[in-house]
Amino acid sequence: MNKIIMILNGPNLNLLGQRETEVYGHKTLDDLKDICMKTVESSIFQIDFRQSNYEGELVQWVQECNNSNVAGLIINAGAYTHTSIALLDALKTQKTHIIELHLSNIYRREDYRSHSFISEAANGIICGLGSIGYQLAIEAIIKLNQEKTKDK
Ligand code: DQA
């Protein structure tokens, strides 16, 4: 059990590859999904990779993570990072490992991006490493699960 790594992507991330490429790079969301799939290829973990432009849908998906099959949640909440108490509240209800992820370094950009509402609920944060961040976040979830098994 405990095999699914849920990866949630928020608003405008469907436009990766066309959107502000100087900030987010040239990889599309499908490219990121492929990278994630490859990262778990020879492991027991599976990726559930989703994107939505709707806050309520993201909240709903976060709530689904209390399912015992979910080994961890990686969330790039896009601009909802900086606005959404609803997402924070949803994340706080989750018992699974949570990694907050951003392609860009939100601390090197506009001031309004340097506050994240959701960090309070995250085990860890990865930002500024582009697509490498997705790989590292998956590796972190796998390691956190191994630690948990060792502790038992
Ligand atoms: C982002 C950073 C956010 O500030 C922004 O609104 C995004 C993408 C990132 O991945 O760098 O949409 O989460």
Brief summary:
By secondary structure, the protein is α/β, with parallel strands linked by helices.
Describe the structure.
The chain has 152 residues and is an alpha/beta fold. It has a single domain (3-151), classed as Rossmann fold. Helices cover 36% and strands 19% of the residues. It is built from 5 helices and 5 strands, in the order E-H-H-E-H-E-H-E-E-H. It has helices spanning 21-24, 29-39, 55-64, 85-92, 131-151; strands spanning 4-9, 46-51, 70-76, 97-102, 124-127. Strands 2-1-3-4-5 form a 5-stranded parallel β-sheet, sandwiched between helices. It starts with a strand and ends with a helix. The mean pLDDT is 95. The structure holds 1,3,4-trihydroxy-5-OXO-cyclohexanecarboxylic acid (DQA).
Keywords summarizing the entry:
globular, Rossmann fold, 5 helices, alpha/beta, binds 1,3,4-trihydroxy-5-OXO-cyclohexanecarboxylic acid, 36% helix, 152 residues
